[in-house]
Amino acid sequence: MTADAAAVAARSVPGLPRDDDGPVFREPWEAHAFALAVTLHARGLFTWPEWAAALADEITRAQQRGDPDDGHTYYQHWLATLERLIADKGVASAATQARYRDAWDHAADRTPHGRPIMLQPDDFAATP
Fold first, then answer.
1. Which stretches of the chain are DSSP H helices?
2. How far is CA 120 from the centre of its chain?
3. Could you tell me which SUPFAM superfamilies the record lists for this protein (predicted)?
């Protein structure tokens, strides 16, 4: 992800947490989710107006379910939007995404602290 791509995303997506230097993140996973969306946009999976509309829809639905909308859940909505668009565009179904998420969770559980997490075939066998 280039700084230019991040800057375009920051200008194109209303509500993106940012400061004078660009997007800001509280946790590493938020930056990863952001970078994945920027990369998928660059590869033509969606336009920024399409992304912004899908993200706004996700946030609205979350608010209707009682999300406090205090900014702490923004990247949770970003990730949910990313997962939904990936499924809707036929890149990976929700079931496939869940299978990989469970496998990564299993791999993380078996990996000693401080060691790199390596996904192995057995991690998939451990998922329901």
1. 3-12, 28-42, 48-64, 74-88, 94-110, 121-125
2. 23
3. Electron transport accessory proteins
Q: What is the pTM of this model?
A: 0.80
Q: CA–CA distance from 45 to each of 67, 90, 93 (Å)? A: 28, 10, 15
Q: Is the pLDDT reported for residue 93 higher than 80?
A: yes
DSSP letter, residue 117: P
Q: Which residue has the tokens 């859940």?
A: 73
Which domains, ranges and CATH numbers included, belong to the chain? 3-91 (1.10.472)
pLDDT at 2: 66
**Using CA atoms, how far apart are residues 106 and 119, in angstroms rounded to an integer?**
9
Q: Side-chain half-sphere of 90: how many Cα atoms within 13 Å?
A: 0
For residue 116 the two structure tokens come to 């790199």
Contacts of 23 (CB under 8 A, 6+ apart): 6, 9, 10, 16, 17, 31, 34
Give, as one character, the DSSP assignment of residue 119.
-
Q: Which residues of 3-15 are buried (b: 16+ CB within 10 A; e: fewer)?
A: eeebeebbeebee
- Residues in Cβ contact with 103 at an 8 Å cutoff, skipping those fewer than 6 apart: 119, 123, 124, 126, 127
